[in-house]
Every structure is written in structure tokens, then in C-alpha cells.
Design a protein that fits this description.
The protein has 406 residues and is an alpha+beta fold. The chain has 17 helices and 13 strands. Among the domains are: 64 residues, MutS, DNA mismatch repair protein, domain I (3-Layer(aba) Sandwich), CATH 3.40.1170.60; 56 residues, Orthogonal Bundle (DNA polymerase, domain 1), CATH 1.10.150.20; 164 residues, Dna Ligase, domain 1 (2-Layer Sandwich). A hairpin with an 8-residue loop joins strand 2 and strand 3. Helix 12 packs antiparallel against helix 13. The N and C termini lie far apart (68 Å).
């Protein structure tokens, strides 16, 4: 085997952490995300809830209709991040390279440590054992010759599963008569396009490769390769600077048609973006604004802003973008930066070269926070460290919406 890759995926991660910490939740349909009285979606749910048809990304109203007796909870992202750090510390012990996909998921290159399939099998079971014994959680592990095959293997025996796909021939034999969506990158829209020309299974792709490539171009070439068991991608350690953007958004529980309130919310979103960018010593070279209107129509606007990363600049540029869009009731608002780079590659702007420019931004931020505090009677300046927590941000924004003067 040219590569030996392990894919580790936690089982219903958020729900499993909550059930571990509160045993009374075990065996019950637990749904993590929004509450039934709120707008939002399911982040994850226990396997008991899945029996009712509930799944991740489902509208919370639909989840409640399917499972009215479920237990609904907001996610505790800070807690999950801490557990995630512990998980990856365990997993990374066995890898020469580890590619973090999410808080609860990673690819591990174990060729050097394992040497052969038997060695990889030992590592896979050690990972499962240590994850259970040290953190009280279960994971599913797939061992294979490629990333696509490893991910397919980890999903094969969920929950708490283990599965191997040693060679391309084994991968093909496993999936050949399955729906095309079993293949990496084939989502709902791509599947519909393939179905429209009579391609429903992996076997159909293998039998009609020219049709797939004509229909989907480069993506079609990739899909044909996967259908033939070919995936040469390497495990690449994640680097924050490789991300294309950093953003934060909030969904209002009722549509907002007051754009002055939206400008106030942008202050908090900009602070969250600044905080995350600062953790990794990154800046952007452009600012984005995202809006979803009452009718679910979404728009994104952006403008080039070299060297942006502080909250004042992000907020001010996002406000300019907001002033240029059509004013309709808003369901969701987001702000972010893009074209990320490390601070060492930052080109100084004219403001940077002017004396005390940083002090000017600090003064302007202080004024913005004082204005928010006076308007909403909240101590923003004294509790900024809490605003970065997703649940606190959402609760604060909802309080602002309900108490906007006038």
C-alpha cells in the first residue's frame, strides 16, 4: 500500500459529550441546535433521535414535528472545543501527518508508524480504546489505502464501528451498486444532474464515464476517478492561514427591518472576527457582508480592504456594504474577512504609517462600545470575552433586537 490512512469520526459528537456529562440523557432522543421555539437547524442529534427521522442541518421546526418529545439543547461550543483538543492529542500520537477536518473528525497518515495493514489495524483499535477509556466517548474508525476509502470505511459500521478497505478493488466492490452520492463531492445538486441523464449508481458512472465528464467537466473527471477507486490526495496538516476566510453570522428569531440595529450587530460580529483572526495572527485583504432576507434570498457583498483585521475596520467597511444593498426585512446577517495572510506578509497601509493609528482605532472601538452600552444598557466593554461564545452572542443579539429604542 502506497498510503495507509485512518479516518476517525466521532459518533454524534455534541450529543455524546452531553450524554457523557449528564447520564440522565442517555437513551433519549437528544437534539442539539436551536430550540423548537427558535429559528435555526439541528447541529447534531443522538441516534435515538435519528430513529424519528431527525438529522443534522434539518430545520428545527421539522425536527420538532418528527420528534415532539425530544430533548432540545443549545450547543456548548467551548466545551466541545476542549474535548476536541483532547481527542486530537490522542489521535495525533499515532500519525506522521494529521489533517483535522472538524472538531470531531480527522485523517491520519499512519504508514510510517503502522508499516502494514496489520499495524494500522492495531493503531485503529488503540485509538478507539483510548478515546473510550480516557474521554468516555465512542468513535468510528476506517482504515484504507486512500482518503475517500478511509472515510467510506469509517461510515460503514457506525456507531462505534471499525472497517477496512485495503485496496481499490475492495472499495469498488463495496460501493459499485450504491447511489452516486456515496462518492466524495457528489452532493444533492450533482446527483440530480447525474440522475437526469440516467446515472444513478456508481456502476452507471463506471459504464458511462464520457457522459459524466461531458456533463460535469473537471468535477466529472474526478468523480470518474473515484468510481474507479483512484484518490491520490495526501493527508495535509491543517494550517489556519490556509483558510480562505473568517466570518461570523447570526440568525434573528424575528425578521429585522431596522438597519440601524443591523449596524449595531455588525460591531459584535466584527469583534468576533477580529478575535478569531488574532488567535492565528491573520489578517484579511477584503471584507464581506452576508444577508439573508425574510424570503430566504441570500446575498453576499464584498470590497477589497488591504490589511484588514481589526474590528473597527471590519465593522465600518461592512456598514458601507450594508448601506448599498436593497432594504428588506433581514433574517440573517454575517460579516467576515477574506484573502487571509499572516501578519508577516502584511503590507502597511497609509493609516498604519500614520502615528498613533492603532490608538485611533482603539478610541473609535471604545466609543462604539460605549454607544451600544448606553443604547441597550449592557456592559459590552466589561464582558467582551463572553461575546465570542456563540450562545452568548446569539442571546445578546436577541436582547438587542427586543430592546432597540424606538
Amino acid at each position: 500500500m502506497d498510503q495507509i490512512i485512518i479516518h476517525v469520526d466521532m459518533d454524534a459528537f455534541y450529543a455524546s459529550v452531553e450524554m457523557r456529562d449528564d447520564p440522565s440523557l442517555r437513551g433519549k432522543p437528544l437534539i442539539i441546535g436551536s430550540l423548537p421555539t427558535e429559528r435555526g437547524v439541528v447541529a447534531t442529534c443522538s441516534y435515538e433521535a435519528r430513529k424519528y427521522g431527525v438529522h443534522s442541518a434539518m430545520n428545527i421546526k421539522d425536527a420538532y414535528r418528527l420528534c415532539p418529545n425530544g430533548i432540545y439543547m443549545h450547543p456548548d461550543i467551548d466545551k466541545y472545543r476542549k474535548v476536541s483538543h483532547q481527542l486530537h492529542e490522542i489521535w495525533n500520537t499515532y500519525a506522521s501527518a494529521a489533517e483535522t477536518i472538524a472538531l470531531d473528525e480527522a485523517y491520519l497518515d499512519v504508514k510510517e508508524q503502522a508499516r502494514d495493514l496489520e499495524g494500522a489495524r492495531r493503531i485503529g483499535h488503540l485509538i478507539k480504546q483510548r478515546t473510550k477509556e480516557e474521554l468516555g466517548l465512542t468513535c468510528s474508525v476506517g482504515v484504507a489505502y486512500s482518503k475517500t476509502a478511509a472515510k467510506t470505511a469509517s461510515e460503514e459500521k457506525k456507531p462505534d464501528g471499525y472497517f477496512e478497505i485495503p485496496e481499490p478493488e475492495d472499495f469498488i466492490a463495496l460501493i459499485i451498486d450504491r447511489d452516486v452520492r456515496v462518492l466524495y463531492t457528489v452532493g444533492e445538486m450533482t446527483a440530480q444532474k447525474l440522475n437526469a441523464v440516467g446515472i444513478h449508481t456508481v456502476r452507471d458512472i463506471r459504464e458511462k464515464p464520457d457522459t459524466v465528464m461531458r456533463l460535469l467537466g473537471k468535477q466529472g473527471q474526478w468523480i470518474v476517478s473515484l468510481a474507479n477507486g483512484t484518490d491520490d490526495r495526501r493527508v495535509t496538516p491543517y494550517r489556519p492561514e490556509d483558510a480562505k476566510s473568517i466570518s461570523r453570522e447570526v440568525t434573528f428569531q424575528e425578521d429585522v427591518d431596522n438597519y440601524e440595529l443591523l449596524k449595531d450587530v455588525l460591531v459584535l460580529l466584527a469583534l468576533c472576527v477580529e478575535h478569531r483572526a488574532g488567535r492565528y495572527k491573520l489578517h484579511g485583504n477584503g471584507v464581506t457582508l452576508k444577508l439573508t432576507y425574510f424570503d430566504m434570498k441570500s446575498i453576499t457583498r464584498s470590497r477589497l480592504v488591504p490589511g484588514c483585521g481589526d474590528a473597527v475596520t471590519i465593522r465600518n467597511e461592512a456598514v458601507k456594504l450594508l448601506e448599498g444593498v436593497e432594504h428588506q426585512p433581514v433574517r440573517l446577517i454575517g460579516a467576515g474577512i477574506y484573502n487571509l495572510a499572516g501578519e508577516e506578509g502584511r503590507q502597511l497601509t497609509l493609516d498604519d504609517l500614520m502615528e498613533a493609528s492603532t490608538g485611533k482605532r482603539s478610541t473609535e472601538l471604545k466609543k462604539l462600545l460605549e454607544s451600544l452600552s448606553a443604547r441597550y444598557h449592557l456592559d459590552f466593554a466589561g464582558h467582551l470575552d463572553q461575546i465570542y461564545q456563540m450562545d452568548v452572542l446569539h442571546k445578546t443579539v436577541e436582547y438587542m433586537r427586543k430592546h432597540f429604542p424606538g
